[in-house]
């Protein structure tokens, strides 16, 4: 479904954040991306979602295709229309707007009114709390609820591929578990997911395949089960010796 080939990215023409990265996500697949701070995980998601330029980054080489269609020269809005949506790190919601307005803003990328209505009812099913809080300003939600809203807003454009950047960061354990359940539920609805997570145990349990990025390069790739069993991953990310 998603194919990244030979991707290299720099920031400000100097900092090389990704070097010759290749990976693929099959139809209905979940790919987990592991790696330490600064490894290039967010950069990878930004490259796919067409938002590198907002961060001063640029693609120097490589291609990104979705179902065989090249998207690496398209702008972010057109990539959303192609069905690829990123939930950025830090659950950025419009704090001064209501929950409802945040969701409506997400629907701007929907392919049709019918698709937007379908997406809306699915989001309400997944996140009943957002219905209860619909008239509240987003800034008043808890961290976990804001994360639900950020994911809900992304789902409003009825994506086929969802890019999640550390959705469990800073959340309480119960909420982390809930985020995991939600990702699994989204996947059950047939949406592909690329999941960047510090919480490797959860992320590998949710994924079919996984890659480890190390200073901008893919250092390990395989099935999620293979990576969970790998000595390198166990030592670095799973807290086992
Ligand atoms: P983290 O887990 O800390 O978010 P990451 O794996 O997502 O890390 P990136 O944020 O993609 O890593 O960063 C990869 C490299 O690019 C790092 O060296 C980082 O300092 C650099 N970098 C990231 N964003 C920018 C930016 N906007 N301008 C300049 N350099 C950047």
Automatic annotation (TrEMBL):
InterPro entries: AAA+_ATPase (IPR003593), ABC_transporter-like_ATP-bd (IPR003439), ABC_transporter-like_CS (IPR017871), BCAA_Transport_ATP-bd_LivF (IPR052156), P-loop_NTPase (IPR027417). GO terms for biological process: L-amino acid transport. GO terms for molecular function: ATP binding; ATP hydrolysis activity; branched-chain amino acid transmembrane transporter activity. SUPFAM superfamilies: P-loop containing nucleoside triphosphate hydrolases (SSF52540). Residues 2-240 form the ABC transporter domain. SMART domains: AAA (SM00382). Keywords: Amino-acid transport, ATP-binding, Nucleotide-binding, Transport. Belongs to the ABC transporter superfamily. This is Branched-chain amino acid transport system ATP-binding protein. It comes from Parafrankia irregularis. The lineage of its organism: Bacteria, Bacillati, Actinomycetota, Actinomycetes, Frankiales.
């Amino acid at each position: 479904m998603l194919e990244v080939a030979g991707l290299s990215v720099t920031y400000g023409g100097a900092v090389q954040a990704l070097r010759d990265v290749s990976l693929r996500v099959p139809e209905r697949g979940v790919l987990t991306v592991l790696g330490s701070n600064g490894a290039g995980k967010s950069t990878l998601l930004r490259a796919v979602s067409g938002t590198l330029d907002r961060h001063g980054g640029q693609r120097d080489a490589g291609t990104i295709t979705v179902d065989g269609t090249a998207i690496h020269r398209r702008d972010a809005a057109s990539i959303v229309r192609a069905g690829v949506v990123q939930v950025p790190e830090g659950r950025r919601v419009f704090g001064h707007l209501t929950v409802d307005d945040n969701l409506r803003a997400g629907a701007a990328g929907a392919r049709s009114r019918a698709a937007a209505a379908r997406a809306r009812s699915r989001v309400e099913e997944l996140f009943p709390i957002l219905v209860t809080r619909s008239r509240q300003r987003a800034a008043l939600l808890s961290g976990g609820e804001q994360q639900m809203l950020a994911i809900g807003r992304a789902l409003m454009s009825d994506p086929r591929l969802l890019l999640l950047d550390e959705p469990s960061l800073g959340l309480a354990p119960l909420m982390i578990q809930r985020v995991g359940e939600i990702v699994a539920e989204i996947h059950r609805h047939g949406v592909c997911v690329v999941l960047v997570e510090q919480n490797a145990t959860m992320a590998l349990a949710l994924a079919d395949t996984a890659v480890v990025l190390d200073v901008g390069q893919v250092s390990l790739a395989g099935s999620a089960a293979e990576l969970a069993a790998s000595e390198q991953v166990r030592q670095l990310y799973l807290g086992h010796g």
